[in-house]
Fold these 3 entries.
Entry 1:
Amino acid sequence: MATKLPTVAIIGRANAGKSSLFNRIMRSQQAIVAREAGTTRDNVIGKASYQGRDFWLVDTAGLKPAEDEFEASIQDQITEAAEAADVILVVVDSTKYPSDEDRRVAKTALKSRKPVILITNKIDLKGNLPDSEFLRLGIKSIIRTSAEHNSGITDVLSEICQHIPAKQQSEPSETLKIALIGRPNVGKSSLFNTLAGKQQAIVASRAGTTRDVNRVRLQYHGQAIELLDTAGIRRQGKQEVGIEKFSVLRTLAAIEEADICFLLMDVNELSTALDQKLAGIIAEAGKGLAIVVSKWDIALGKDAYTRDALAPKISAQFDFTPWAPLIFTSSVTGQNVAKLFDLALSINANRQQKTTTRKLNDLLQQSIQKHPPAGLKNTHPKLRYIVQTDTNPPWFVIYGSNLKFVHWSYKRYLERQIRDIFDYTGTPIKLSFRDEKQLKANRERVARGLAPVTKAYKQAKNAEKQL
């Protein structure tokens, strides 16, 4: 079972360098960075990792005077970010004396009683002030940075890691967690209520009623299940400022927590780019996935022919997740709703499936004979053997040499070969490649007592014996 990732929120007044700091930590240009103050209007969210610790990083809009309703909503958003975060980074411009806005940001952060770190940014510029000038903000932990020149970033990450738990191998839970994911008003809350058998969520025709994650526990054929109903994610340009912005983060956290995600789509508005993006996030997170077409009772011209005609079109839009089953439902008539539980149990069983090393290696050798991997003129990848190292999701490691030359299309080919023999419907499978030189080095380290005997090490050694 996955656990909820901690959240780190970056707050501060406009043009202090929050987006530059976000980009440095994420090692990418996800936020818009510009000289004009107040460029960032929305939360920008990314999943960061450092020293075995994973967390959501949130870059919030800059704090500006509430001259109108829109700016007031931005300030509400920052308050919401501080309340929802586990760690708060307050960013100030080190070349300017603390202002009333800085004091307001610091007060908002400290009021949350969460760990707060003060980042004095832009220390590369002339006239930057000493930390003593910022002590009046009341934040004890102060780190000097230059996000533009990548200075002090590791200090920030190290300090964050002091306040969040290390990534742990969580014990398998007996409770199967199912998250309902999708855009607003696609019928998530109605389906949640129908599955739960009682009125748990507020159901309304107005889009975006659900602001947080609703939960209910139930039993189905002896299996404990927890349903998670999430607030819908709108397309970026249509998201409202304020509380709804932070529902995006809660939805991502629900995906992280769930074992299986049902991606809901309104039958009258199918296969949008956002639906595809959500499917990609779920697959990348290694979660089970089923695509659920909702509101089938109000589909125009609905009949078997329509369903048979729609299914290939939808599948073509999600060709990057061809393993995800497609089901048509109606919460009003109850059509196929009960089947969702059976589908979830089936996907869960597939995710737990273990395959013998002997069968896997027979499959690998047959696949290579049918279609050898291509390489450079005198350098071809050699795939020697394969082992399954994990379940939930199923994870396979292939050992060999010159593996850096394995083309992505050949990895797809190997995945198809595995899926043709073993039923992994509804779940992504992960493929990793490890060079034999690395394995040999690991053996030597274990023999000299410099490294522990890991599960993966044992599996690789057993696989070699069976060849």
Entry 2:
Amino acid sequence: MKGALLVNLGSPESPEPKDVKKYLGEFLMDERVIDVPLWARTLLVKGIILNTRPKASAAAYKKIWWEDGSPLIVLSEQLQEKVQEQVDFPVALAMRYGSMTIKKGLQELVDKGCDEVFLIPLYPQFAMATTETILVLAEEVRQEFFPNLKIDSLPAFYNNPEYITVLANSIIDDLKGKEYEHLLFSYHGVPERHIRKSDITKSHCKIDGSCCATPSKAHEFCYRHQCLEVTRLVAEKLNLNEDAYSTSFQSRLGFDPWLQPYTDRTIERLGKKGIKTMAIATPAFVSDCLETLEEIAMEGEEIFHEVGGKEFSTISCLNTNKEWVSLLAKWINEWSKTPVEA
């Protein structure tokens, strides 16, 4: 029997410092998140970050925590439930980090009789720290615990025409009745070295003004190209003038160069430039989370107002958007008609 497993990032068990510390420890010790030698990663994470960051991160989580729990978990569970309504075989949910493990998700499907699984990383773009780490861990878990299980996975869907239509329509709906002079597409940031490491050609990605626009096999795994392509395709759908939108990257860590321009500095620049009304979308995520609800909706708005901005509109992630739910269910149902290769 077939089954599907939706996989998102994860969340602490609670917004209390001890739970946030445990979650950050698992997340930051992932070699595909902080990709330095183990000794250096251990020193940085356990010696520095986990002794300084959990309290501040816990305070941020408390700002956005819902009565029902983590917004990311709640929204992901709602998405899973609504997709299940349109699929005739089991659909389970797992997180890369935290207690809702991939092993538990696969076990749930196996217990229901599934021997073929469609694994769906809930990220439109490919990145080492998102899609790749999910796929690698899922294969490790399969080999160790479910050797007879067949797993197929959904490729990055950043340029899928149906996805772009759904995303563009959701932005249109969210901005109805709102004035904005500039639409900012903000994506999760990654270190520049992640882009170069993911370059299968070992020569194309230079992170300059042209490589992402020059056709290459490297684009299949290039996070930067895929983010810029989402912006371009959605802007075309919305008929935006070139000066009415831009792309930025948020959530940098440490002193190494990360993808630029940075979102906080872009918001500040736009405000100082005289933009009084702006909207911001976060298409690296399909479910609202700490980054969208606190870093963008709260901190971003504060920055904009400090430099003279007036109206700051945050566009919700797709979450349980009806078109998005139907599209996910369609992909799953289409996969079910195609045999999975061993």
Entry 3:
Amino acid sequence: MKRLVLILVLLASPVLAVQPDEVLDDPALEERARDISAELRCLVCRNESIDESNAELARDLRLLVRERLVAGDSNAEVIDYVVDRYGEYVLLNPRATGANILLYAAGPAMLLVALGIGGVYLRRRRQATESPAEALSEDERTRLEEIMKS
């Protein structure tokens, strides 16, 4: 049983995602490629980097990153190239610019609005006076007495 679990864990491991034919000869360039690949999202696997993914699209993106590095691009230029091509969704950690600022600020803003609404509700509830109960009319009182007797 333990062997089966070990085999399943090893098979599920993303360690073998980068295939030997993708590895660059220059260790410095390969390290840069791995750093960049760790920042890019696999568009098939969603919350997995292209460095960890076995999907064909992730392989294509890893090869694209390595091609751009061999061509002499900097890390930022490679990331910008991939973002221009696939959109900002490809970044595992989106940039805090433009419309993303609204997304980052929406959570805390909604919390503050909810706390404000809750505070107003509690203050009004505390200040509210209880209205006195209206007395029963003569007909209601006699009907109540009849019900209570039976």
